[in-house]
Each structure stands twice: as structure tokens, then as C-alpha cells.
TrEMBL record:
Belongs to the trans-sulfuration enzymes family. Pathway: Amino-acid biosynthesis; L-methionine biosynthesis via de novo pathway; L-cystathionine from O-succinyl-L-homoserine: step 1/1. It catalyses: O-phospho-L-homoserine + L-cysteine = L,L-cystathionine + phosphate; O-succinyl-L-homoserine + L-cysteine = L,L-cystathionine + succinate + H(+). It comes from Bodo saltans (Flagellated protozoan). InterPro entries: Cys/Met-Metab_PyrdxlP-dep_enz, Cys_met_metab_PP, PyrdxlP-dep_Trfase, PyrdxlP-dep_Trfase_major, PyrdxlP-dep_Trfase_small. The modification N6-(pyridoxal phosphate)lysine is found at K220. This is plant cystathionine gamma-synthase. GO terms for cellular component: cytoplasm.
Length: 410
């Protein structure tokens, strides 16, 4: 039997597609964008680790959609289609990192002399890119508290082109009324990009609330295993996505097929992980609220959360995510002692949204590049403890936290 006799025909059993609107969210996580390989019938999309693609003729150049992997790659395309489906967008582009996605969005919608409005509390890398890098190119940025949309409206100038929101914000978890913000940006002819990394499409889809582009660090919940880094921009329209793809092709910051392959597998279990992580986060937040060593705890699932009504309005499935933060009594010294001494299964490191539970000191780690006065203005003190709950047994996490909290000098 020849080797070719082992190969499937182009018609593979079960390879047909059905309309996206007929698929549930968890089905999209597994099957969105994916078809069995037409050559072998492989159920998992192969890694097309090829730089270039042989063309049939000059007249049919790129007829199959692929010419050079910087422009497009079959493995990467499937991940883009899956993310577009789960975020309810028209199209998506994926990037080497979350910051590559962020800088591509800004580069696409702004030119020298243009102005953008950014949430005053965002990922530290976003803050630094706007404040330090893009200002060198002649762009202008205003950072405002988006909990009150009058702040956004008051900040709009004749040269404003872009509004970049982040909800929940990293790390304070402050929320923005995305539907109201999107209505404002549309009325003013502005592009609204919303960073949805913390919430994920399982909890909230910004495009459903009128955003033009959803920004995702796929390093977080899409990967969820501390294994890869990546980013994505999901656009509400194909026209917007084409603009983003044009910029991406120029900058050459696309995701590699190997990383796309990994994230195509990890994203399948995103809902399962987030449900478990959210359940654990609520248990931990409730415990922290009752512990005498804790000064303050913030989690959107708590009745005490200042924006609880908005959280319930925005977040689907009565789920509020894996992220919370708290401060301990005694200030910075006690906060840092806790982060230095809490034992496994907790890990002191950067990143979030992973299977492992992580404690982070934003003032030193994720937000160290913000100006100190700006950090303190939004509430990120030197003893601010950011928590990303993993999928371990909640009782083990609670036990380790209790031991570390009980040992603090109060």
C-alpha cells in the first residue's frame, strides 16, 4: 500500500461546518474555526511551520490566501477565527505579545498630532507605551477615571481619535459602563478599543456593548497555563480588522504558528478554568473580608464591591473572574511580608489567569513603570496585593493565606 493510500480524501466525515449562531459558547471554544485536516483527518489543526508557500502561477498569486507567514499562516488563521467567534467579532488578528496588540491598535488609529483618551488605571505596559513611547511620535494622551463618563466627554478634543478602556481595570478592578462609553464614542466619531483581558469572553464581550475592538492578552486566560505569550485584536467589522492587519503586516509582530497551535488547545478549557477560578476567588475574597489583618478587599462578586450593580449588569453567567486585590493592616511593610512569606500553592510572580494561583506586587512588578503619583492616585500602594486564583483546591489556598495573615505583626 502506498503512503498516499493512508491519506483521507478532501471530504472528511464530520468536517462540515454549521452557522456560528447555532453554536454554544463552550462549543465555540472547542470547535470554532477548526475543521479536521483535509489531508489526514487530524482532529487538531496542524502546525504549518512554513515560511513561504508555493504559488500555482503568477496570475493565481495568493489565491489560497497564503504567500508568506508574516502576512498569514494557516495555523494562525484558525486561532484568529476562533477568537473572533467567541468574542462575537467579524475578524481577529493575533500577535506575538499582548503589548504588540496594544501598540498595533494605537499605531493603526492614530497619527502624529492625534489625541487619545486612556483609562487612568490600566496595565502598566499600556500606560508606559502611551506616556513614554507614542508621545515621542507626536501623539497626545489624556488619562481619565472612566467610572464617570463625564470625565471622558470633558477630555474629548477636536483631534481626539481613540478611546482605550480597560474593564475590569488592571489591577484595581474598576469597571466602565461600556455600553454608555460606546454610545459616546460613536456619537463623537471615535474608535473605542476595550481591553478585555481580565474578564474574557466567558464573562463579558465588549463588542456586545458597542466597542469597535476588543483587546486581549492571550498570555492570560486563553493560554491559562503559564506556557506562552500572545495578544489579539478582535474587530467588530471586517473593515476595521483589515486596517489592523495592514499595520500588523508592516510591523511584523504576528504570532508564530507554534504559539497559535498551543493556544488553540489551551483555549478549549477556558470556561472550565474560569468557572473554577471564579468560585475560588469568591471564597478567598469572602475569607479576606472577615480576617482582622485585612484592611480592604476588592472583588466584583462581593456585595461590598463599590460597582456591584454595574458588575452584575456587565458580567454574564453570574461569574466575576479570578482576580481580586487587598491591603493588609499595618501598611506596606505587612503587605510585602505577606507576599514574601505566603507558602505554596501560592506563587509570587507576574502574570495572571493561569492554572497556578499567583500573588503579585503591582508597585514593584506589573505597574512599576507608572509614575508613583499616578499609581497612588488610582490606589496602587506599595503594599497593594494582587491575586490571581488558579484551579487548585480552594481550601489549600485559604489555609496558606490564613497562616501568612495570622503571622503579621498588628
Amino acid at each position: 500500500m502506498s503512503a498516499n493510500q493512508h491519506l483521507k480524501s478532501d471530504k472528511v466525515a464530520g468536517s462540515g461546518s454549521w452557522p456560528v449562531e447555532e453554536q454554544g459558547f463552550d462549543t465555540l471554544l472547542v470547535h470554532g474555526g477548526v475543521k479536521p485536516d483535509p489531508v489526514t483527518g487530524a482532529i487538531i489543526t496542524p502546525i504549518y511551520q512554513s515560511t513561504t508557500y508555493v504559488q500555482e502561477s503568477i496570475d493565481l498569486y495568493c489565491a489560497k490566501g497564503y504567500s508568506y507567514t508574516r502576512s498569514a499562516n494557516p495555523t494562525v488563521t484558525v486561532l484568529e477565527q476562533k477568537l473572533a467567534a467567541i468574542e462575537n467579532g467579524a475578524d481577529a488578528t493575533v500577535y506575538a505579545t499582548g503589548m504588540a496588540a496594544t501598540t498595533t491598535a494605537i499605531s493603526t488609529f492614530m497619527n502624529a498630532g492625534d489625541h487619545a483618551i486612556i483609562t487612568d488605571c490600566s496595565y502598566g505596559g499600556t500606560n508606559r507605551a502611551c506616556r513614554v513611547f507614542f508621545t515621542r511620535l507626536g501623539m497626545e494622551f489624556t488619562f481619565v477615571d472612566m467610572r464617570d463618563l463625564k470625565n471622558v466627554e470633558d477630555a474629548i478634543k477636536p483631534n481626539t481619535k481613540l478611546v482605550l478602556s480597560e474593564s475590569p481595570a488592571n489591577p484595581t478592578l474598576t469597571l466602565t459602563d461600556l455600553s454608555a462609553l460606546s454610545a459616546l464614542t460613536k456619537a463623537k466619531g471615535l474608535v473605542h478599543v476595550c481591553d478585555n483581558t481580565f474578564a474574557t469572553a466567558h464573562i463579558m464581550r465588549p463588542i456586545d456593548h458597542g466597542a469597535d475592538v476588543t483587546l486581549i492578552s492571550t498570555t492570560k486566560f486563553v493560554d491559562g497555563h503559564n506556557m506562552t505569550v500572545g495578544g489579539a485584536l478582535v474587530a467588530a467589522t471586517k473593515e476595521i480588522s483589515d486596517k489592523l492587519r495592514f499595520t500588523q503586516n508592516i510591523l511584523g509582530n504576528n504570532m508564530s504558528p507554534q504559539i497559535a497551535f498551543y493556544q488553540l488547545q489551551t483555549v478549549k478549557t477556558m470556561s472550565l478554568r474560569i468557572e473554577k477560578q471564579s468560585s475560588t476567588a469568591l471564597k478567598i475574597a469572602t475569607f479576606l473580608e472577615s480576617h482582622p489583618a485585612v484592611e480592604k478587599v476588592m472583588y466584583p462578586g462581593l456585595a461590598s464591591f463599590p460597582q456591584k450593580a454595574l458588575a452584575d449588569k456587565l458580567h454574564r453567567n453570574n461569574v466575576h473572574g479570578s482576580m481580586l486585590w487587598f491591603e493588609v493592616r499595618g501598611g506596606t511593610a505587612n503587605g510585602r511580608q505577606l507576599m514574601d512569606t505566603v507558602s505554596r500553592p501560592w506563587s509570587l510572580c507576574e502574570n495572571l489567569g493561569a492554572s497556578e494561583s499567583i500573588i503579585t506586587c503591582p508597585a514593584v512588578m506589573t505597574h512599576a513603570n507608572m509614575l508613583k503619583e499616578d499609581r497612588l492616585k488610582v490606589g496602587i500602594t506599595d503594599g497593594f496585593v494582587r491575586v490571581s486564583c488558579g484551579i487548585e483546591d480552594a481550601d489549600d489556598l485559604l489555609r496558606a493565606l490564613k497562616i501568612a495573615l495570622d503571622a503579621l505583626p498588628l
